[in-house]
Amino acid sequence: MERDNASAAPALPWWRYGHVWLIIAGPAIVVVAGFVTLALALRSPDPLVAQDYYRQGIEINKTLAEQSAKALLPAMQGRNHAASPAPATEPAPAPTPAPTPAR
């Protein structure tokens, strides 16, 4: 039995199939993204870290703590005033009667 070559569809080249391009697109996008990342890294280098970065951080924290304490001072005073008991006062001494003139 011979096959009829006229009825069979001709074979298409590989680049004419869509799924081939779908498979190639993934790695191609990754390569392009890698080059974009490389260009960004070369164009804008990271800033240098100061040699005394730890001391600078401690100073920043102290400054922020002072600012925070100053900002909360009225609230803290109000809270402490509301929570504190009334001051204990001694009773006032009884008034002494005025001396009566002698008759």
Beta strands, count = 0
Largest sheet features: none
User: What does the average pLDDT come to?
Assistant: 81
Shape from CA axes? rod-shaped
| Contiguous runs where pLDDT drops below 50 for at least 5 residues | none
Kindly state the percentage of residues in helix.
55-70%
End-to-end Cα distance, whole Å, is 163 Å
- As a percent range, the share of strand residues is under 5%
How many helix segments? Answer: 2
Helix vs. strand class = mainly alpha
What's the order of the H and E elements? HH
Rg of Cα set: 44 Å
What can you see in these coordinates?
There is one protein chain. With 103 residues, this protein is mainly α. Among the domains are: 35 residues; 29 residues. The protein is built from 2 helices and no strands. It is rod-shaped. It starts with 17 loop residues before the first helix and ends in a 20-residue tail after the last helix. The mean pLDDT is 81.
SSE arrangement:
Layout: H1 18-43, H2 53-83
Provide a short characterization of the protein structure.
The protein is mainly alpha-helical and 103 residues long. The protein is built from two helices and no strands.
Structural features:
mainly alpha, 55% helix, 2 helices, 103 residues
